[in-house]
Amino acid sequence: MIEVEVVLAWPQQVQSRRVPLEEGATVADAIAAAAIEGSADCPAVAVHGVLARLQQVLLDGDRVELLRPLQADPKDNRRRRARGG
């Protein structure tokens, strides 16, 4: 048995759940077990800050981070800053 933490952070709140899983459990298993509202809206996931696939096998103590959609295009932000605005 392993235990992992699943985290979803928004600007106004953070949801975090520790879930027990069987050895060999995947990122997808952890997300399903955590049942955090809004997790379906997350386009990507990371494990300890490194982009991960849903089929990645987890280890005891891993932190699965649900990544929220970008609010603005990074390229547009860079262009705006380069123009001085």
How would you summarize what this structure contains?
The protein has 85 residues and is an alpha+beta fold. It has helices at 27-34, 74-82, and strands spanning 2-9, 14-21, 44-47, 50-52, 63-67. The longest helix has 9 residues, at 74-82.
Largest sheet: 5 strands, mixed
Radius of gyration in whole Å, from Cα? 16 Å
Protein structure class = alpha+beta
Approximately how much beta-strand content do the residues carry? Answer: 25-35%
Total of helices = 2
Mean model confidence by pLDDT: 91
Topology:
Blueprint: E1 2-9, E2 14-21, H1 27-34, E3 44-47, E4 50-52, E5 63-67, H2 74-82
Parallel strand pairs: 1-5
Antiparallel strand pairs: 1-2, 3-4, 3-5
Structure, explained:
This protein is an alpha+beta fold and 85 residues long. It is 20% helix and 33% strand. It contains 2 helices and 5 strands; from the N terminus they run E-E-H-E-E-E-H. Strands 2-1-5-3-4 form a 5-stranded mixed sheet, covered by helices on one side. Strand 1 and strand 2 form a beta hairpin. The longest helix has 9 residues, at 74-82. It is elongated. 16% of the residues are buried. The mean pLDDT is 91.
